[in-house]
Amino acid sequence: MIEALIHLAQASVFDLLALSPPGWGGNLLRGLTNSVLIAVGAYGIGIAIGIGGAFGKLYGGPVLRDLLELYTTIVRAVPELVLILLLYFAGTDLINRLLEALGYQRIDINGLVAGICVLGIVQGAYSTEVIRGAILSIPQGQIEAARAFGMSPALMLRRITLPAMLPFAIPGMANLWLIATKDTALLAIVGFNELTQETRTAASTTKAYFTFFLAAGALYLLITLFSNVIIARIEKWARRGMPAGAH
């Protein structure tokens, strides 16, 4: 079913790009590439923050737990568009002010890098809670058995905690990946040339709003359908050996 939808979305995208005014199809594909790069980078940063944040909230000291709680609460409470504007503009300005205070020259921060970092910070807060919940879902008997065998914390993390939490974390992390692909559109507000910004530029120039935004929607749908196929395979691999219907 999903494979059929992917083929249908692909055909729709090619048809719409063929109907668009000449010279703009490449712009949309360039914007799509930028969107995917931002989503992959932000998702990777979010996972790294999430793993560290989850273990910090579960096993860290009181100060670390309070700081992480403050981080996850603020990021999840403030609208993402506001966070992007705040981190993108205020964050880059703060970095340059610090450089000037240390005697260095101001730098121009690459828009792609800035976009990845901004969305990565947002993703990290949600990943922290997803991974924390997945760790808490691990049967405690497995952890106690690993400790009884004298496993070090690092070895227990690699052999027990991460593999055991993976089936519980995948559904939430899959949703975060799909959110990351859509959140890249918010970077259009700061003028970064991802898919939405390229679409808006093409549509406003040619006045073919319906064609271009429909094509952009089809491209986002194509990313989602393809991602669902990959996620389903990863989930099947992670749940190998588990009883059918186990959650």
UniProtKB/TrEMBL annotation:
Regarding protein family, the annotation reads: Belongs to the binding-protein-dependent transport system permease family. HisMQ subfamily.
* KW Magnesium (keyword) present: no
Highest taxon of source: Bacteria
UniProt-listed InterPro entries? AA_ABC_transptr_permease_3TM, ABC_transp_permease_HisMQ, MetI-like, MetI-like_sf
What organism is recorded for this protein?
A: Mesorhizobium marinum
Phylogenetic classification of the source organism: Bacteria, Pseudomonadati, Pseudomonadota, Alphaproteobacteria, Hyphomicrobiales
Task: Kindly provide the name given to this protein in its UniProt entry.
Answer: ABC transporter permease
The record ties this protein, via PROSITE patterns, to: ABC_TM1
Q: Does the keyword Membrane apply?
A: yes
- Give the bilayer topology: Multi-pass membrane protein
Domain named ABC transmembrane type-1 is located at: 32-231
Q: Per UniProt, which keywords does this protein have?
A: Cell inner membrane, Cell membrane, Membrane, Transmembrane, Transmembrane helix, Transport
Give the UniProt subcellular location, in the record's own words.
Answer: Cell inner membrane; Cell membrane
